[in-house]
UniProtKB/TrEMBL annotation:
Descriptive protein name: Serine/threonine-protein phosphatase 4 regulatory subunit 1
Organism of origin: Artemia franciscana
Entry's Gene Ontology cellular component terms: cytoplasm
Molecular function (Gene Ontology), one example: protein phosphatase regulator activity
Classification via PROSITE patterns: HEAT_REPEAT
Protein origin, superkingdom: Eukaryota
Chain segments carrying region Disordered: 1-24, 358-385
Keywords attached to this entry: Repeat
HEAT repeats: 82-116, 286-324, 686-719
Length: 852
């Protein structure tokens, strides 16, 4: 917590030990005498001893209470004499002393809570008023520490909520309203926003909400930014009804704030706000508002919006859990009112022109330089514009939604140039026109309504030429619009038209979109999400955009559902081949989640190819696929599992051989997938990998591979077990490398512990190679054998009985190891005999003295 740290101690202070506790606890008289000193550091050191002095005096008072005839309570006069000392330190003239004393307030309150019988009331009567008075301190560090202390008191339930309501809340409001320093007001607003979720809905609605709304419109940009950053927390506290009725309007205002930091903060809280409102509000209000942030003029606002786009889209899944998606028949109430952004049409002619204007301009970007003169781009713009206008004019069922997103020209008088353009779109009056075919156009600022007749289809091409001619003459592409008030853009949150290129469009349109229409999320949000992988982001420096997209892809896929995977299929392919390894790693780490969401068909036909492709990538990418190998493997059908298993050998090839943790992860995943493979697959594909890992240079990897080997032996039939044991003997037991021979006793021990094979088969194929290691020249190998013999062979009746074919050899091994020249080998045979061990230690120490 900012400004407060339980372990933040100056160890240089005299009288304070290294753990922050006083080495010598002063008495009450010493504290009182030291309080009058002029040395700042002496007074500062007193603050460190206050809590322990309190504890000491209180313990002494309980141990030897002075009782009278009527009162059997302990004498706490010396304990209460500490309170003036604490108050003087908290009001010291030096800010460093005040800071250290305020830092001890939560510790004091915790001690008072532990001693609730006699001192519990001091938090309310003494600590809380002292902290409230510190809210007006002149030093910022002291104030922030005070804020942190108050939050600790509330979080730990050390004070009553009613006390915070009566004492703290009015003090915070007083600082916000009276303080002249902007930073002091900002700190108080931050405290208000952070303490509101801790106090609950009732107190927040009664005291904080009205003040918070006023602060959202404060003249200080810093205050507005703080309010925007905490908007999500406030929405979570007050609930959806209050959010929709009172708070959303202020969110809309802050999304068009002049300060880009405020707009960026709004983009970061959209997901939390969306989780508090209804689906209808997400469609009508939040979705169009979020699109404006995605097209913001500031690069940092756009990045924040795109970073949260996937999470915002995921909030639309909440209403789809019952019915997967909303069909036209099942959701007539919502879909009739929900603007299908893929086919969004506005019946009003002024809105049609606004649509044309929006497609021809974007808000100017102060961070980037844009290319607007390429002929191909102009041709594409003209083609897109042509198609858009045709859809607008030729639509037969234009119908105004009950609550459409507000038009940017709403409430403003149309400029002269646009009025002329509107008049050009009028057609000759038809002979017979039904009144029901008249369409609503616009409500102007003076309350007048404009009505028009349907546009004749025969005039479409001519009117398009007129629109293009108007757009090409330059009157609509200047910095201001002729005949329009310059303040229009400020009031309508629009930017003057410029020669910027068209708003960003998705790099492709899924083919399935022509036959399958999704109604799960607004199409405009989906288009912007698909555009996140556009190569232009890398050229402009927004390299993190693709990683944001890959990170939220499972959530978006969950929201759309497996029926609409085709919308994301090409996006997935682009992310799979992205140049940044972080993007590919993110995608590789989430393939198992996508597979669980999309079902068997997509997993076995599409995702498995990508999963195997990542096996050949960089180590940083492959680890993402490897860590979830089992989770993805179990989603495959048997045929595709046989396709994946031979590819696992790619994991043995490493860019950095020192990365032994990669091989350790491989062993653990191989153990996990053994249960999903048949015996032939285990023998052909998994066992060779384990055998290779048994010979690894790192002991931790070999140790884990031993566990995997026992699992393999348990899962295979006896014939394969025999072959496996013979291979282990050849590759491990008689290897030229001593660290492999050292592993063989551990393999035998693990096999016996897991009962992977029968004792007869073990004696026939594994026991003799183990006992032969008694002649090994490396002591570490003989030590491993001594541990195996004493822990498994000597304690097992089968091995230690004459019926064992290797009984005589076992006895010879025991005798030889007991007399081994290495003391560590003999230790395992003498550890049950303390006298013998003591003799061994004495003899070894005597030999060391003689050698000296």
């Amino acid at each position: 917590m900012a400004g407060y740290n339980h372990n933040q101690v100056d160890y240089e202070d005299e009288g304070v030990s290294g753990d922050g506790s006083p080495s010598v606890i002063p008495t009450l008289q010493e504290l009182q005498s030291s309080l009058a000193t002029s040395d700042v550091f002496t007074r500062k050191s007193l603050t460190r001893t206050v809590v322990e002095t309190f504890r000491t005096l209180y313990a002494l008072a309980l141990q030897s209470p002075e009782k009278d005839d009527n009162n059997h309570e302990p004498d706490l006069r010396e304990v209460f004499a500490m309170l003036p000392i604490i108050q003087n330190l908290a009001e010291d003239s030096e800010y460093l002393v005040r800071y250290c004393m305020v830092e001890q307030m939560p510790h004091l309150s915790m001690f008072f809570s532990e001693s609730k019988e006699y001192l519990g009331h001091l938090t309310q009567k003494f600590i809380l008023p002292l902290l409230v008075s510190t809210l007006n301190d002149t030093n910022s560090q002291v104030r922030k520490t005070c804020h942190a202390a108050l939050l600790v008191l509330v979080e730990q339930n050390l004070v009553e909520i009613s006390d915070i309501d009566k004492l703290v809340c009015p003090a915070i409001f007083n600082v916000i309203q009276v303080a002249s320093a902007e930073d002091q007001r900002a700190e108080a607003v931050t405290l208000l926003c952070r303490i509101s979720p801790l106090l609950g809905r009732d107190i927040t609605l009664r005291h904080f909400l009205e003040e918070y709304i006023c602060l959202c419109n404060d003249a200080s940009m810093q205050i507005r930014k703080i309010c925007a950053s905490s908007f999500g927390e406030m929405c979570s506290v007050v609930g959806g009804d209050v959010v929709e009725k009172e708070l959303l309007l202020h969110l809309q205002r802050m999304c068009s704030d002049d300060l880009w930091g405020v707009r960026k903060a709004c983009a970061e809280v959209f997901t939390v706000v969306a989780s508090c409102v209804s689906m209808q509000t997400k469609w009508y209000t939040l979705s169009p508002l979020f699109v404006t942030l995605l097209r913001d003029e500031s690069r940092w606002v756009r990045l924040a919006a795109y970073q949260n786009l996937g999470q915002f889209i995921a909030t639309f899944h909440e209403e789809n859990e019952k019915g997967s998606e909303m069909s036209n028949d099942e959701s007539s109430g919502l879909l009739d009112e929900t603007p299908d952004i893929a086919k969004q049409t506005e019946p009003a002619v002024p809105d049609l022109v606004s649509e044309l204007v929006d497609q021809e301009t974007t808000r100017p970007n102060e961070e980037e330089t844009e290319d607007v003169g390429h002929p191909a781009n102009n041709h594409q713009q003209r083609s897109d514009l042509d198609e858009s206008v045709k859809n607008e004019i030729l639509s037969e069922d234009l119908q105004r939604p009950p609550k459409p997103p507000p038009s940017p020209w709403s409430g403003a008088v149309l400029p002269t140039e646009l009025t002329e353009l509107l008049s050009g779109l009028q057609v000759e009056e038809q002979k017979e026109v039904s009144p029901t075919k008249y369409m609503f156009v616009e409500e102007l600022s003076n309350g007048q309504l404009i009505w028009r007749e349907p546009i004749a289809e025969l005039e479409v091409e001519k009117e398009l030429e007129r629109v293009y001619k108007k757009l090409g003459e330059g009157s609509l592409v200047e910095g201001t619009i002729p005949g329009c008030d310059n303040d229009l853009f400020h009031h309508t949150n629009l930017t003057p038209l410029s020669t910027s290129p068209l708003p960003p469009q998705p790099p492709y349109t899924p083919k399935s979109q022509q036959s399958v229409c999704q109604n799960v999320i607004p199409q405009d949000l989906l288009d912007h999400y698909l555009w996140m992988v556009d190569p232009s982001h890398s050229e402009s420096g927004d390299t993190e955009m693709a990683r944001y997209c890959a990170f939220t892809l499972p959530a978006v896929a969950l929201t759309l559902g497996k029926d609409h995977w085709d919308y994301l299929k090409e996006l997935f392919k682009i992310l799979e081949g992205d140049m940044q390894w972080k993007v590919r790693k993110t995608l590789a780490s989430s393939l198992h989640e996508l597979g669980a969401l999309l079902g068997d068909e997509v997993v076995n036909s599409q995702l498995v190819q990508s999963f195997v492709w990542f096996f050949k990538d960089l180590d940083e990418v492959r680890i993402g696929a490897l860590q979830h190998l089992m989770e993805f493997f179990k989603l495959l059908n048997p045929e595709r599992r046989k396709y994946v298993l031979p590819k696992l050998r790619e994991f043995l090839r490493l860019d950095n051989e020192r990365n032994w943790r990669f091989r350790l992860e491989l062993v653990e995943q191989l153990i996990a997938i053994i249960g999903y493979c048949d015996q032939n697959d285990i023998s052909d594909h998994i066992y060779p990998l384990i055998l290779s890992l048994l010979k690894d240079k790192v002991w931790t990897v070999r140790f884990s591979a031993v566990t995997a080997l026992s699992s393999i032996l348990k899962a295979t039939h006896p014939e394969l077990r025999t072959i496996t044991l013979m291979d282990i003997k050849t590759e491990i037991a008689i290897s030229q490398k001593w660290y492999l021979r050292q592993s063989y006793p551990k393999i035998c021990e693990e096999i016996l512990n897991s009962d992977s094979i029968g004792l007869e088969q073990f004696c026939e194929y594994a026991m003799h190679p183990a006992l032969r290691l008694r002649w090994d020249r490396v002591p570490n190998v003989r030590i491993a054998l001594a541990h195996l013999v004493t822990s498994k062979f000597m304690n097992n009746p089968y091995f230690s009985s004459p019926i064992n074919q290797h009984y005589i050899e076992l006895q010879e091994t025991i005798s030889l190891l007991k007399a081994d020249e290495d003391r560590d080998v003999r230790y395992y045979f003498n550890r049950n005999d303390p006298d013998e061990n003591a003799k061994e230690i004495f003899d070894s120490s005597k030999e060391g003295m003689n050698s000296d």
